[in-house]
Each structure stands twice: as structure tokens, then as C-alpha cells.
């Protein structure tokens, strides 16, 4: 064997190695490219609206001798034909999918008998409701399979579009995605007299928006590659109706938009770019209507809009690309490039005239930040808020009943998040250095944060104090919440200290 052939062999081997690596790199980048291209979904402009929009029924209730309004909610398994001939297993309240719309009036005492007919423990949380911590339905109020839980409280907040959904720690995404969600509407003297459309199911429509993917007959909750935000579905539905249309017979139509998706952010607008009036946010009416063409709504957020219809026309509520300044990778893999036809409105050939929109709506009900006694900072990161994941037996801090605080929330992560606080409606004082845009100018309980965003919130907890039972604050991208992007606080009397969470169920 000549000694000259060894370097030659080595050179040949190196050449082979280099080409192998080049081929592998090309294959990997080809895959990534393919995954990137494949990641965007769109139904905008190519939807045939085949199904009449379902409107969740108003929940029946009865008023007991002491004046308490009693509702019953049954959590159960079921099935639903979202598509003809395909029977999909689902979960729902009092039915197969989603739940009835609860409706109560400010000042009323309400009681809800929640029966868990599911094969596993869950909870029901009243998102946006001001109520005692023990009635909140968070992860400390688990309802075992077969058990009943009966919270009661007095409605004491302005008219609003709230909602309810399960909140079992670690399982919230799964339980909501299977179909457990419903609206909870609050009325007050103002909302019952003001000139806004308010004929439920006629000119005042609940619009519960979810995204969904079907695999065969079943709903598929798998997270696709690089989707750090969680589950993103291929198509949308409203109130459990795919490709929905609704015939309307009034000039002004109020849409109560609820983003009940687990991770997807929508940017609502109409296909003909018409403007609409924003009249309410999470916790109630704005001080006056704002004219908009686009309205972003992240998971858990609500907005009430009023759109003007002309006789005989059709218009489509759409979701457009997200304009939040995300880098192109994050934009694509968090669903920011996706567009959807959400709901088609079909106006009758003659429309009932609606009174013009009032120029003033509701006086401000949230604290304005004056007299704030405490400033708290919240750093958002997938690994936890302020660096630690949620622990059921750790209360992160105590707030004093009745004191106004300033909460500064910063997204230090590379992906979008949002921030939800239980029990309150807060005011957004600033987004970065700027005054809040119209869609953040009303009462809020959930706010979206793109990477690097900072918001300043004025919050006040009016009690009652309960040092042992925490409320939650968390990212409402439900998979993030399940992973532990959540913390707990208690409300205490002046000078009081946090106690210990009652030893209960949960993880
Ligand atoms: Cu809508 Cu703590 O949740
Ligand atoms: Cu909540
Ligand atoms: Cu998050």
C-alpha cells in the first residue's frame, strides 16, 4: 500500500463529508421552508357561507323567594354534526357544544348550580366578573366528576359582555377547546335604556369565535411545529357554526365579539373595509363610540361593535393579518399571517330603522390611577411570570382591599402573550409611552402584549377580603396558562397579610 494514497483517501472522504452536510442542510432548510409556507392558513375570500349562524339560547333561570336568580349549568360530553354526516365528540354546557347565554342585572343576587357530568374534574370560571374569590371558579374551586358546585354572588358592576369557561390547572386549553364556553351578559339601568341595539339574537348578536381543525370526524388539538403560542386551527367557527351567515333585519347590528380561541389573535374588520363603531370592551361600554376599521382581539378579550347595514347588501366580518410588529418568523408561526372569513351578514331588502348611535355612552367606571399606592411589575415569559411558574400553594402577593395600584406588565419574551386579571376591570393608562388606542380605552380585564410591549394598568380590588383564597393573573393563551404562566394574589383588609391556600384538589 503506497503512502500517497492515504491523503488522497482522506481528501475523498472529506469531500464526501462536505457534500453530505450540504445535502443535509439543503434538506433541512427545504423542510423549514416548506413548513414556513405551509404554516399560513386562509379562508378569506373563498368561503361559501352555507350554515345559518346558531345563537346560543338565553339560559333559563328562576327567581327564588329571597330574590336570588338561580341558573343551572350541566357540564357534559356530547356530539355534534359540525359538518354533514360527520359526528364529532364534544363537550358542552346544557347541550353538546358551548353553553347558554346567562343574563343578569346589576344588583341581582345570582346563584349557579354547576353540575360536572364530565368524566374528569373541572371548574367554571366567570371571566370578567367581580365576585368573592371563593366563587371565582379558578383552579382552587375544582368540581369533581359527578359533583355539584353552587357559587353565589351579587352582581355589582356595569353592564358588560362577560363569559364563562373551565379553569382546571394544566387542563384549561383542553377543556375550553372541546367546547366548554359561554357568554354571561350583564345589564344595568343605562344599558337597558340607551339607544343601542339590544334585541338578543335579532339586532344584538353573540359572536363567539373559535378556531378548529378536524381530523376525520374528531377535533384535533395537536400543536403544529414551531407554534409556540399553542393550538392554531385551520378554520374558524362562530357559536359552533362553520361558514356561518346571518340574515339581519335592522339598520344597526350590534356584535358582541368574544375571542374564545385558545391561542389565536384576530384582527376583525369587514371585507369591504367599511367602518364600524366600537361601543364596548371587556368590562362594558366606552365613554363614547369610536369609529374603527380594524380591531385586534386576543384570547379571552371581548368587544362590542355596531355595524350599519344597507338594504339587501351582504358584508363579511373578516379577520385580517396581525399588525403588531412581529418579526417575520414569529408573525408566521403565531398565526399572524392567517386570514379568515368569520361571519357573513345578509341584510333584508327592507330594514327596520334604528335610532342613531348616542354620542355619549357610559361614564368611566375604572380607576384612573390617581392615588395609586403600589406599583408592581410583571415580566412575561413562557417559563413563568416574574421568573417563576405558577404553584398552587404559593400566594405571590397580597393587595389591600379598596387601594388603587399600578401594574406594569412587560413582555420580555420573543413571542406574543396577553395578560388577564381575575375579579377586576382595569384601565389601560399607557401602552409604552402612548395613550391607549380606542380598543384599549374602555374597561378591560385582558390585554395583548407583543414582544417588548409594556402596558401600565390602573387596578383596584374592591373586595371582599379573603386572605386564604387567591385570584389568578395569567396569560390567556391557554396552553401558556397551563404551562404555568400564571400567578396568584389575595385581597386582604388594610394591614392584613396573605394566608395559606386551603389544601384542596388541583395539581
Ligand atoms: Cu378567562 Cu383565568 O380566565
Ligand atoms: Cu378570568
Ligand atoms: Cu402567553
From TrEMBL:
Coiled coil stretches, renumbered: none
This protein's record includes keyword Membrane: no
Keywords: Metal-binding, Oxidoreductase
Source species, domain of life: Bacteria
InterPro entries for this protein: Cu-oxidase-like_N, Cu-oxidase_C, Cu-oxidase_fam, Cu_oxidase_Cu_BS, Cupredoxin
Keyword Oxidoreductase: yes
Gene3D superfamilies, alphabetized: Cupredoxins - blue copper proteins
Plastocyanin-like domain mapped to chain residues: 85-189, 378-492
SUPFAM superfamilies on file: Cupredoxins
UniProt family annotation: Belongs to the multicopper oxidase family.
Protein name: Multicopper oxidase family protein
